[in-house]
């Protein structure tokens, strides 16, 4: 009898924590909508600035998350499969952008373009600072560590034996990676993509440091919130926040559905 | 046999997706570069965001010049200019940052001019629920007051000077529960938090009339100092003539009208009217012990 | 077909030392050893997943020591987690063949042949190989390995996760594959019974060394080292001195420290005065029925003792007999039918014979 009671107590505690947390987030979002002024919304939506910010945010987040995946995949694979001298050091190094605050990462990028090769790059290849490429670079730097972490966890879960079997069956290392590791990791890769994408959409500190928040040029949704807050345009800021919440909910929810079904990309 | 072919189709899809994205990227890139005709960039403090946006738009219409506006706290914008060696015009929210920029040789000293004036005021929530009509009211027990950090933010410094000049620093100090880290945060603090009053600028009311009301300092209480919004050409400006043109435009009549529309004061005579005894700009030394006996 | 010459491999702290092994064409080789002996590492070195520090691997007369695994044309079936979970059963089967760009008609013909041989035709259209039973998965894995027409197939404890009945079926199937496809097989196991059932040639691997390679009889009756003897459950092991050697009758006489004397066949170079380990398998000891006429082979090494313990093992009985001369009881394994005839009971005095032919000897390289 006592035992049964304790199970019940335990479960009640755990579930009430979950319920409390969900309730807290719901209230947070509902409070946000309290600051909305319905009559403002059509005007905001019509403004070129916000439409550009939405497009720019989506575009840069998509490109930077894909870049992070493309670069992160080999990095994560090596870190997951090989032990080599200095691998712990590199592992720690790759985690730095997670620990450093995004403003620090952004400042680092600005300083990078003050060095001789950095100046050469801006003069001869392209200007990164205060342009949309800067947004991508800032987002990429911040999310790449996250992408590598997530992908490494994915590769860690795949037994290297599958790759070995593929090799003996006649695959070159590249083929084995493409035909075995990659398809087996596809769910992990997809969810890593979604998470890094979501993180890139929300990225602000590094973005605003590197690219500023120039209207119609480098103003993303988070920097739009920042700009409106700094002139106390609360309902405007609340609208952008609500927009981001809705976008995030839709994307995360859709990705859950996609991930639950066994679909090939 | 169909199932075995699946990986190939996946590959094709992936390649298609990637090439599509690359195309999108390039098209977007070319679009961006196509728009880059003549342009100048202005690094400005958040305090001038609302009028400056309209001014820049007007300038673009008149001159066909794209003005990239970068807003943030004046200090952050100065750091950004320093770190990137970019920016044609600097327009901080107060003179002290302009002096700092001058010290660091980031602006052309001869080009510094005054665009508008900022009058300190008590900002309360719309409707003035706590009935705060004077600085003395801030010392009433139970009133929660916020000011900007006087060590870093000029409006905070002005607030301390204002209180001291009126002999109220000691009595208001116990009611100061928050110090904010920028001028803009001071404005959002009164709009969003449970503070009863902040000492900020009169213009805050114009930014968000439905949330903020400004109470002017009048009667026996005096305003010792008036804030100044300066503008200057930076020392790394690429297109100097264009940048100068923008500065002249910003100091000109059309721009002044826009500033006035947003509650800024553009004429010295009007300043004198509102605050007869105030010095304009200049420096105030923060008393080292202003916080004595107080922890926040 | 498979020739391993002086192979040394290092993997972490573990080391394979000086491995020499040859499996002739279409023979069935088995590496037997306890877990952690390095059997898997040996297989991985042969298929090319580990590169050796020293030595050569020759497959079909070609030195492949430096070749990539995909170029060696050997097949490999690991213990478990062998089928690719993201491919259907058919996709798994075709995997290697497609990687090697075999024509689809060849693939289909081979698939037909193998799925009949391994009895997996009904599984071909299953989409998720993880829904197959363990035994089915291993059969598909073996078929997939054979799809590429390998020169040899290497199996790493493929049946160890299966229950006994299924294991027996698959062992028989594997033996049939060996005969029908005339393919060389190298099989790794820790199961003694499996090794003796399948292997034409058996290698005993202990602690990173191949301590003995030989036919079933060699391994069974004449272990090369004490460790090998122990691993093969030779429970009656003694240590002592060679007392005499009669080259005419090829007889050695060995004496245990406690005074036990045994005759053995002189099949190695032991000389009088040498120290030696010697012993006999529990199954090789005969219990003499009272009043039975003693024929020649049984006359050697007769001794008397009392039955201490009787334990039933299923197919046979294990009897511990206390002999006055030695400290440890003799372990005797008697088939059930013989046991019933003998009417043994604990405490009974019996006579046993340790046949001379069955006594093995190993030179001991130390003196007491």
Could you name the key traits of this structure?
A: mainly alpha; MetI-like fold; 0% strand; globular; B: 296 residues; alpha/beta; 2 domains; five-stranded mixed sheet; disordered N terminus
* Count of individual domains of chain A: 1
**What is the CATH topology descriptor of chain A?**
MetI-like fold
Q: So what's the overall shape of chain C?
A: elongated
Q: What is the fourth-level CATH superfamily of the largest domain in chain C?
A: P-loop containing nucleotide triphosphate hydrolases
Tell me, briefly, the overall form of chain A. globular
Give the CATH architecture of the largest domain in chain C: 3-Layer(aba) Sandwich
| Helix percentage of chain A | over 70%
Largest beta-sheet characterization of chain C: 6 strands, mixed
Q: Mean pLDDT of chain C, as a whole number? A: 88
User: What's the CATH class of the largest domain in chain C, please?
Assistant: Alpha Beta
Radius of gyration of chain C: 24 Å
- List how many beta strands of chain A DSSP finds: 0
Looking at the structure, the CATH topology of the largest domain in chain C is: Rossmann fold
Specify which chain pair forms the largest interface. Answer: A-B, 33 and 41 residues
Strand adjacency order, main sheet of chain C? 6-7-8-3-9-10
The sequence of SSEs of chain C as H and E is EEEHEEEHHHEHEHEEHHEEEEEHEEEHEE
Low-confidence stretches of chain A: none
The largest sheet of chain A, given as strand count, sense and whether it forms a barrel, is: none
Structural class of chain C: alpha+beta
Report the mean per-residue pLDDT of chain A as an integer.
88
Helix content of chain C: 25-40%
